[in-house]
Protein: ATP synthase F1 subunit epsilon
Amino acid sequence: MINFEVVSPERVILKENVKQVTIPTKEGNITIFPKHMALIALLKPGVITYHTPEGSIENLSIKGGFVEVLPTKVVVLADE
Structure:
């Protein structure tokens, strides 16, 4: 599992354990699984898609920001 967080300057938008997450970066969409290599990337406006442990697929729109990826954690710092 991945500890997935989406935060804005004002609040925590989402904090959940997920199986995988797909994020729109400036270089294209990336899908992150557990034990992914560490990276920091600039995000473009788009939709984050994540898979919950129960098997559902959820979507979250963002207007941009940054993502920090660690082997067991993904943090999105959203513009809004």
Q: What stands out?
A: The longest strand covers residues 12-18. The beta strands are 2-7, 12-18, 20-25, 28-32, 39-43, 46-51, 57-62, 65-70, 73-78.
